[in-house]
């Protein structure tokens, strides 16, 4: 316990030492108790220290003034020591509980911030995971799942807006021979190389490039007419051949592809199975007619 004989000394003591509670008279030299309490409450270092006024002034206005400047309690003189000790103990206990509550709230705040950060990281990870779940692990283009979803969306949009929709199916010629003669590692590398050519054309011309299955790829071209899609397919066919991907079992010594193109004209409803079947039929004709070529079919 530390005693001060004036208001200014009381302030200096409270700011110098870590005090748990202040007993303050109203009438003091230099500064009265109300002024001292006001300064204590204005200072962040002493703001939470409980102040109990002990004074001979017992008018209601005196007590109201004490509470108005931040006093926690008001004891009038003469007083009973037991009563003062009980009120001091109560204020000390209340201050401890207040500090404990503030500490726990701070901890909860940190936990909430950490949880928010964790949730943010999980959201990013989920987006990345979803993106990865749509990629073919070998070639890096979209996988069959993503293609099926995109085809459903494209057919729905074509039907709603009466717009054309084209689909190109690409099949690598004599791919089994490549695997048998050069091994599956070179076969995988050939698939990656063709996918890179297709991805480059997709980036330039739009649409969705996907691995359809095995050695077959798909190129979905919303809004493109049959003639436009056929021209794009012909350019792609030439670029695959010009990539000079080694194929020792092929007559020309390089990987070639057969392509089937199907397109709706936007005047009749189109379904995913129907446009896939039409593109597959065109692809079959391309392979039957000698391979390394493009065949097309207009859906009506």
Which descriptors apply to this entry?
alpha/beta, Alpha-Beta Plaits, 2 domains, 3-stranded parallel β-sheet
Question: What's the β-strand tally?
Answer: 8
The first-to-last residue Cα distance is 99 Å
The amount of helix comes to: 40-55%
CATH fold-level topology of the largest domain: Alpha-Beta Plaits
Which structural class matches the secondary elements? Answer: alpha/beta
Would you mind describing this structure in some detail?
With about 300 residues, this protein is of the alpha/beta class. It folds into two domains: about 5-100, 3-Layer(aba) Sandwich (Rossmann fold), CATH 3.40.50.2300; about 145-300, 2-Layer Sandwich (Alpha-Beta Plaits). About 55% of the residues lie in helices and about 15% in strands. The chain is built from nine helices and eight strands. It has helices at about 5-15, 35-40, 60-70, 80-135, 145-160, 175-180, 185-205, 225-240, 270-290; strands spanning about 20-25, 50-55, 75, 165-170, 210-215, 215-220, 255-265, 295-300. Strands 5-6-4-7-8 form a five-stranded mixed sheet, sandwiched between helices. A three-stranded parallel sheet has the order 1-2-3, sandwiched between helices. The longest helix has about 55 residues, at about 80-135. The relative contact order is 0.09. The model has no long low-confidence stretch (mean pLDDT about 90).
């Amino acid at each position: 316990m530390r005693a001060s004989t004036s208001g200014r000394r009381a302030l200096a003591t409270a700011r110098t030492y870590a005090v748990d509670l202040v007993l303050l008279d109203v009438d003091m030299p230099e500064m009265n108790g109300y002024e001292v309490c006001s300064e204590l409450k204005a200072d962040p270092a002493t703001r939470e220290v409980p102040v109990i006024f002990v004074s001979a002034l017992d008018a209601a206005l005196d007590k109201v003034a004490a509470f108005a400047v931040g006093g926690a309690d008001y004891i009038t003189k003469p007083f009973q020591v037991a009563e003062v000790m009980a009120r001091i103990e109560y204020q000390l206990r209340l201050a401890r509980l207040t500090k404990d509550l503030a500490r726990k709230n701070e901890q909860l705040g940190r936990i909430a911030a950490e949880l928010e950060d964790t949730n943010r990281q999980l959201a990013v990870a989920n987006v990345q995971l979803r993106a990865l779940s749509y990629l073919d692990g070998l070639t890096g283009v979209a996988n069959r799942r993503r293609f099926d979803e995109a085809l459903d969306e494209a057919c729905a949009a074509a039907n709603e807006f009466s717009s054309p929709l084209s689909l190109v199916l690409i099949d690598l010629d004599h791919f089994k021979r490549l695997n048998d003669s050069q091994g599956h590692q070179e076969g995988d590398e050939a698939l990656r190389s063709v996918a890179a050519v297709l991805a480059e054309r997709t980036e330039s011309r739009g649409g969705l490039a996907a691995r359809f299955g095995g050695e077959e790829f798909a190129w979905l071209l919303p809004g493109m007419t049959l003639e436009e899609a056929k021209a794009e397919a012909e350019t792609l066919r030439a670029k695959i051949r010009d990539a000079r991907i080694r194929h020792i079992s092929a007559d020309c010594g390089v990987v070639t592809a057969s392509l089937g193109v199907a397109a709706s004209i936007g005047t009749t409803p189109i379904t995913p199975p129907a446009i896939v079947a039409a593109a597959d039929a065109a692809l079959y004709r391309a392979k039957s007619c000698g391979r390394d070529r493009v065949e097309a079919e207009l859906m009506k």
